[in-house]
Specification:
heterodimer, A: alpha+beta, 2 domains, six-stranded mixed β-sheet, 8 helices, elongated, B: about 300 residues, mainly alpha, MetI-like fold, two-stranded antiparallel ribbon, 2 strands
């Protein structure tokens, strides 16, 4: 167990800058999720901790010691890959044992550790099988067992749930969290799926175009996004962002009122409002219903207000407009946030 | 009814489409194979037009006990043993070297691969020049054994082997280069993170993952080596080949067709060579393929 820190870490691939001065500290025993869309630099950051990529500038520290120049094998970290990266020629037991064989550990001790890890992940009956004889979920668990068996200082997980079906993904999500809590090992988990991030992480670091946008607990990110990107990316659906103007304590789209605004300040703003805080109201701003997603007890109405596309969450039993019909929308509740329409930074 | 017609039409088209391949197979594979069997059973005269008579297996049993055949078998196997394991190993090493992301590697890659597409005649000329007792590179370097290499029962086979190796190495290099490029990079990275050194990664992960390629290279290399006679013919010739122990079975077949016509005997040797190759390939599959891991 250890702390991990990125100190002004930057990475260039040719002309392309994929990481622009990342500063981030992960506490001992913490479960940190690196969240962002593809190409945001999150996997590159993770691979740098593993030693599979070296930073163009800056340092990676593990337990306060710079490991930037150390090869992967000297960092004592374990990684779980999206593809699981199991050794196809080795049995499950030998796959799990592989990291231990690189140490001075006796054969008996190795066997005991392999059995312990296999049992912990429910693989005891499968130890003699080859990876190709396993299902996706089982391979996933072998990869996890291989990671935990040598008790590394840090787990690095690169989208390990992406190849699983929805049911198994939900199950494995909670299994990984339980396992991490039990072992107390510092974990960096990379994903583009904000549901995974929200349900698993102690803290989430949101990244976009190589820049860290915000670090915080899932609740902080959800209720207090630092900018429009985080607001729009976190949550399911993400926060609605509507181009409007403020003035006289009112938020307006054109001449129509979207809802109450701050008492001070004038000029254009980007209004952030969660789907559940946007309600149908004939006295609100004009919108067109472009689609309906029925999720069971609730529905998502997909609407457009001018150029902006928004989602309205409401009960399945509440009256709703048909597709293509006009409706009025109003922001209600206290969840309305304002962002600078140019920089995207939070204003309120 | 119309469906029946459609099917007939479709089948007709199918036969039409496979016809060119079928004709080639009949002319170059099936007919020669059958003809070989008939030559094997009949004692054919050395010149066309004379009657042939049924000989049964007598030609074959005579061949099996002849010292020329046994010596040819020994030469063929010795040549295969010289060329195949070394060629596989060197091809693998060169492929690993060329796989490194270093500057100018494309040039090396081209050089290594070229030998696979050079004809045996080219190889023979190059190596013949090297070994020429008067003008060659080896005498110039002070290596000038007496009798000369190509006339020495001790060294001639090794020289043939080196030429074969030079050619096979290129093929083996291409196979392993392709194999290395298709290795799952993440598995190698996992091994590095799991604590393996680069040498450890090579022996414990790369080589096992390349096992299908190794198996293929051994199989193809063995079959190729068993049928070699080009450099023997070009550098040694039919009259010295037996004396310097390079008279491989494939070369004997060639001689019994071209230099001292005895089609029956040539057919017998070719069937023997076919059986020997088949047995070796079977053994390869039986014992080596068990150790092969196919990734998926």
């Amino acid at each position: 167990m250890a702390t991990v820190a990125f100190r002004s870490v930057a990475k260039q691939f040719g002309d392309k800058s994929v990481l622009k001065g990342l500063d981030l500290e992960i506490a001992d025993g913490e479960f940190l999720v690196l969240l962002g869309p593809s190409g945001c630099g999150k996997t590159t950051a993770l691979r740098m901790v593993a030693g599979l990529e070296s930073p163009t500038s800056g340092d990676i520290e593990i337990d306060g010691v710079a490991v930037t120049d150390l090869p992967p094998r000297e960092r004592d970290v374990a990684m779980v890959f999206q593809s699981y990266a199991l050794y196809p020629h080795l049995s499950v037991a030998k796959n799990i044992e592989f990291p231990l064989r690189q140490t001075q550990m006796s054969k008996a001790e190795r066997a005991a550790k392999v059995t312990e890890a296999a049992t912990m992940l429910g693989l005891a009956d499968l130890v003699h099988r080859k990876p190709r004889e396993l299902s996706g979920g089982q391979r996933q668990r072998v990869a996890l067992a291989r990671a935990i068996v040598r008790n590394p200082v840090c787990f690095l997980m690169d989208e390990p749930l992406s190849n699983l079906d929805a049911t198994l993904r939900a199950q494995t999500r909670s299994d990984i969290v339980t396992l991490q809590r039990r072992l107390g090992t510092t974990t960096i988990f990379v994903t583009h799926d904000q549901v995974e991030a929200m349900t698993m992480g102690d803290r989430i670091a949101v990244m976009h175009e190589g820049v860290l946008q915000q670090v915080g607990t899932p609740t902080e990110l959800f209720f207090n996004p630092a900018n429009a990107f985080v607001a729009g990316f976190v949550g399911n659906p993400g926060m609605n962002l509507i181009h409007a103007a403020r003035g006289d304590g009112e938020l307006r789209v054109g001449e129509q009122s979207l809802g109450a605004g701050p008492a001070t300040g004038t000029g254009p703003v980007l209004v952030g409002v969660r789907a559940e805080d946007l309600v149908l109201d004939p006295s609100g701003v004009d919108a067109i219903c472009t689609g309906v997603e029925i999720l069971g007890a609730e529905v998502h109405l997909l609407c457009s207000i001018g150029e902006d596309h928004v989602v309205v969450r409401q009960s399945a039993t509440a009256p709703r407009p048909g597709i293509g019909e006009a409706c009025g929308l109003r922001a209600a509740g206290n969840g309305v946030l304002l962002f600078d329409p140019t920089s995207g930074q939070r204003l309120s | 009814m119309s469906r029946h017609l459609d099917r007939t039409k479709e089948a007709g088209l199918a036969y039409l489409l496979i016809a060119p391949a079928l004709v080639l197979a009949v002319v170059f594979i099936i007919y020669p194979f059958m003809r070989n069997f008939s030559l094997f059973l009949y004692h054919a005269p050395p010149y066309p037009g004379l009657p042939s008579h049924f000989a049964g297996l007598s030609q074959f049993t005579t061949m099996l006990t002849s010292s020329t055949f046994l010596q040819g078998l020994e030469a063929t196997l010795l040549y295969t043993v010289i060329v195949v394991p070394t060629g596989v190993l060197l091809g693998l090493i060169l492929a690993v070297v060329a796989h490194q992301k270093l500057k100018g590697m494309a040039i090396y890659r081209t050089i290594f691969a070229t030998t696979a597409v050079s004809s045996v005649a080219v190889a023979a000329v190059i190596f013949g020049t090297f070994m020429n007792p008067v003008l060659g590179l080896l005498p110039w370097l002070g290596i000038n054994p007496n009798p000369p290499i190509l006339q020495s029962p001790t060294w001639a086979m090794l020289a043939m082997g080196v030429i074969g190796l030079w050619q096979f190495m290129g093929l083996s290099f291409i196979l392993f280069s392709a194999g290395l490029q298709s290795l799952p990079e993440e598995v190698l990275e996992a091994a590095r993170i799991d604590g393996a050194s680069e040498v450890g990664v090579f022996w414990r992960v790369t080589v096992p993952l390349l096992s299908p390629t190794i198996f293929y290279a051994i199989t193809v290399g063995t079959i190729g080596a068993m049928y070699t006679f080009g450099q023997m013919d070009l550098l040694v010739g039919p009259f010295s080949a037996q004396y310097v122990h390079v008279n491989t079975l494939a070369y004997q077949i060639y001689q019994y067709v071209v230099t001292e016509p005895n089609p029956g005997l040539a057919a017998c040797i070719s069937i023997a060579l076919f059986i020997i190759t088949a047995v070796i390939t079977f053994v390869n599959f039986r014992f080596l393929e068990r150790r092969v891991t196919y990734a998926n």
